[in-house]
Each structure stands twice: as C-alpha cells, then as structure tokens.
Amino acid sequence: MTVRPLVPFVPEGFQYFPHFLSEEEVQEWLSWVEPLPFRQHKYRGRPMNRRQVMFGFEFVAGNQELGHAGSFPEKLVSLGHRIAGLTSAETEFNQCIVTKYPAGAGIGWHTDAPCFLGGVAALSLGADGRLQLRPEGEDVASHELVVAAGSLYVMNGVSRWSFQHRLMAVRATRYSLSFRHARVK
Any idea where the domains of the chain sit in the sequence? Predict the structure, then answer.
C-alpha cells in the first residue's frame, strides 16, 4: 500500500489499489467521462470550483438533500460490481458522482453524508491528486496519499465514519468517480 502515513498506521477499513485500471482502461474511461454534462453547484451560496454529474441519486452538499438523478448506466453498474468484488464494500452501490476538478480545484475536509450507507469508493482519472485523511476532530492530516490515474481507494468502517478526508487543489484536470449507497426511504 502506498499510503504515506504521518503516523505509523493506516486507518482501519482503508484500502488502496494503485493500478485498479490498466492504462488502456484509463483512456477508455476518460473518453467516457470527458463529454458528460457537468454542472457547477453552490455550497453556502458560493459556486464550487469542481463540476459534477450524478447517476442513481443526486446529492448536493449545500442543501443536504437526496433526490433521484439520471439512470445508472450499465457501464457504471459493471464497474461498481467490479469494485465491490475486490473490496470489503458493505453494500451495493446505487449512486455515482463523477466529479471534474479543473486545475486549482479541490475539496475541503469532510466525511461523506450519513444518508450514504456502508463504504465509499473513488476511482481516479486524469491528473494525480493528493488525498489527505485525519481523525475526526483533529486539525492536521495524519495520512497523505497520491491518487494517480487508474487508482482506487475505498473507505469502510473506521476510515469511513471516524476520519475526514480532503483532496488538495490539483495542478491539472482530474476526474473522480465516487461510488456510494444512498439510503432510499
């Protein structure tokens, strides 16, 4: 595992697969995500630097509401099954957010909302990103990881619920496909 811990342990439930996709698969997925109709959302009244397309269920951090989004394409269903088969994912994925991070964009410290049950998995495409983790309530990162194109990280258990994570501002365009399970009422 190529997690660079700032303390000598990896959070329980955190898994990292540096070469989840082959180089050919990375190019295939980039060709699929680049033309998607990305939208810019607002958070606390301000436009976010990143852009998103959601499948299965829509969730906008600013209003904390979950609603139905576009259908879950078979291509994403297959990828979700492949991810779940490799990891210790606790539930079947029914939501995917494809996020475009243009140069200079990132996402601040957060824990994915509790309306998403079980684990969270994120596949990286495009430029490298710097993912940091910290225990809930701490001020500084305890772990840092470079997430390269074709890599996958998964957070279950302690790493999902008791740690926060963030993506530092990227230097070039990066895409993330985040798979989660939305609690349906």
Answer: 4-40+48-182
Tell me what pLDDT residue 7 has.
44
Tokens at 124, concatenated: 């990286």
The domain 4-40+48-182 belongs to what CATH superfamily? Answer: Alpha-ketoglutarate-dependent dioxygenase AlkB-like (2.60.120.590)
Task: Please answer whether residues 76 and 94 qualify as being in contact, where contact means their C-beta atoms are separated by less than 8 angstroms.
Answer: no
List Cβ neighbours of 74 (8 Å cut-off, separation of 6 or more): none
Chain segment 104-150, per-residue pLDDT in tens: 999 877 766 666 677 889 999 999 999 999 888 888 888 889 999 99
pTM of the model: 0.86
Q: Is 64 within 8 Å of 92 (Cβ atoms)?
A: no
Is the pLDDT assigned to residue 158 strictly greater than 90?
A: no
How many residues does this entry show for the chain?
Answer: 185
Q: Which helix (H) or strand (E) holds 25?
A: helix 23-33
